[in-house]
Amino acid sequence: MKIHEYQAKGILAKYGVAVPRGEMANTKEEAFEISKHLLANGAKGIVVKAQIHAGGRGKGGGVKLAKTAEEAEQLAGKILGMQLVTHQTGPQGQKVQRLLIEETLPIERELYLGIVLDRATSKLVFMASAAGGMEIEEVAAKDPNAILKETIDPAVGFEPFQARKLAFALGLKPEQLNPAVQLMTALYRATAEADASLCEINPFITTTDGRVFALDAKMTFDDNALFRHKDIKELRDIAEEDPLEVEASKYSLNYIRLDGNIACMVNGAGLAMATMDIIQYAGGMPANFLDVGGGANAEQVEHAFEILLSDKNVKAVLINIFGGILRVDTLAKGVVEAARKTKIGIPVVLRLEGTNVEQGREILKQSGFNFLVAETMKDAAEKVVRAAT
Ligand code: GDP
Ligand code: MN
Question: CB under 8 Å to 335, separation ≥6 — which residues?
Fold first, then answer.
């Protein structure tokens, strides 16, 4: 699960990470009041920041500076409601519904800090780079040595010597070392305790008056750990998520929308991945990843089918099921029921194997729908690619 920058900063601040003063605003009037308050309390200027679940907002025009509360209100009015396009949103962009109104700070250097779960070692890795403010993916591709890494042993946690090593390597001034070590340590504690799989500060800044701050913050949480973080779960903003993915999550379906036009419904994540591969091998593009799960019931299959079909890009469907706990006849009932309700107008290819496969095929035959039945996975992929073009 992703959260907004202002929410991440709220969590980090509780752990003692230094963040600029600021508040979230839903309207331009709120933006005005917050700005007035900040300026009356020593802020030198105001930054108006669009809150969407995507990076690259600065380049896309979602981060603007103001000198007065009136100016901040005007900028807020322009940014709220706009369809913000960044390299992470896709060409359609994301509608801005919230803003973060913050004090500006006298930036000296823009650096990068990040903590990410390294699945290869099953450990958190602390990353730091002097090349902050830019896209870190680009830095990593062009000059991997510009990113410093410290692997964290979960039994001992992030050790002070590791923080000092990173702080020195970033070339910080002597008076900035201790505050930076403190900030990094707090960042690690927040990440580990909140079960975040990613925590990224880009930029992490030093100021001309010798302080350090997290100027931006991004946190992503492990969905499987959310049950033990009720407060974090409440931060979910479904307006930021794909509506079909939100719908799928209601029925415990593992669904991720993609750009292609061949929908696939599969049981088991491994088989789902293999199905996406073989569709591409046959020259097609999958419209989604969908794992209905090993123990899906007819109702879940029905909902899954409805979700697949409500994607307007979909030109054909491939159902690839190996019946184990989910028996093939159960699946067939769900598919027929959904086909009845949604009045499908596109080709559906099925490749079925496993428990009760004969009964399943019989149900499909009796249904009156013109389902295309394939013998092998290769055959299924070729049939569905042909049907979609
Ligand atoms: P992102 O583009 O979505 O990653 O948004 P960021 O929060 O990282 O902001 C983008 C850029 O805006 C930063 O790299 C800074 O250069 C600039 N920026 C953000 N806040 C301030 C601020 O308080 N003062 C100044 N001068 N620049 C800021
Ligand atoms: Mn950033």
Answer: 301, 302, 305, 319, 348, 350, 364, 371
- Residue 103 CA: nearest ligand 1 atom is 23
Q: Are the CB atoms for 167 and 177 separated by under 8 Å?
A: yes
Mean pLDDT, rounded, for 25-47: 98
Choosing from 2, 63, 205, 207 the residue with most ligand 1 atoms within 8 A of its CB, the one to mutate for a pocket test is: 63
Which position among 112, 188, 251, 255 bears the catalytic label?
Answer: 112
362 classed as catalytic: no
pLDDT at 151 over 90: yes
The answer to whether 180 and 172 have CB atoms below 8 angstroms apart is yes
For the question of residue 200 being annotated catalytic, the response is: yes
Q: What is the DSSP code string of 149-205?
A: EEE--TTT-S-HHHHHHHHHHTT--HHHHHHHHHHHHHHHHHHHHTTEEEEEEEEEE
Q: pLDDT band at residue 343, thresholds of 50, 70 and 90?
A: confident
**Structural domains of the chain, with CATH:** 21-103 (3.30.1490.20), 107-233 (3.30.470.20), 243-388 (3.40.50.261)
| Confidence band for 20, pLDDT divided at 50, 70 and 90 | very high
The one catalytic residue among 73, 103, 150, 200: 200
Closest-lying ligand 1 atom to the alpha carbon of residue 132: 14
pTM of the model: 0.85
Closest CA to 239 of 62, 41, 96: 96
- 173-194: average pLDDT: 96
DSSP character string of 326-366: S-HHHHHHHHHHHHHHHT--S-EEEEEEETTHHHHHHHHHH
Please give the biggest Cα pair distance in the chain.
79
- Closest ligand 1 atom, CA of 5? 7
Q: Ligand 2 centre from 203 Cα, in Å?
A: 6
Query: How far apart are the C-alpha atoms of 14 and 4, rounded to whole Å?
Result: 16
pLDDT over 80 (residue 226):
yes
